[in-house]
Write a structure and sequence with these properties.
It contains four helices and three strands; from the N terminus they run H-E-H-H-E-E-H. With 65 residues, it is of the alpha+beta class. The protein has a three-stranded antiparallel β-sheet. It is globular, with a radius of gyration of 12 Å. The N and C termini lie far apart (38 Å). 12% of the residues are buried.
């Protein structure tokens, strides 16, 4: 069970929101998820991405140069 402190800081974004944030097409976000470059989870049929996972993806991209 998740603690209430974790739930308070838990920020999940939709594929479209992630695409807008990264300034890419939603298909690009779905490809990153499919290729396991960006972690995600499902709520019913919808895909959600944690903000922490987006930040980690960006860090990896910056480190790769």
């Amino acid at each position: 069970m998740l603690s209430s402190a974790i739930l308070d800081t838990w920020t999940a974004m939709t594929v479209r929101e992630v695409a807008d944030l990264l300034r890419v097409h939603p298909h690009t976000v779905r490809r990153l998820i499919r290729d396991a470059e960006l972690a995600s989870y499902r709520v019913g049929r919808q895909i959600r991405v944690r903000r922490e996972d987006i930040e980690e993806y960006i860090r990896r991209q910056l480190a790769a140069g």
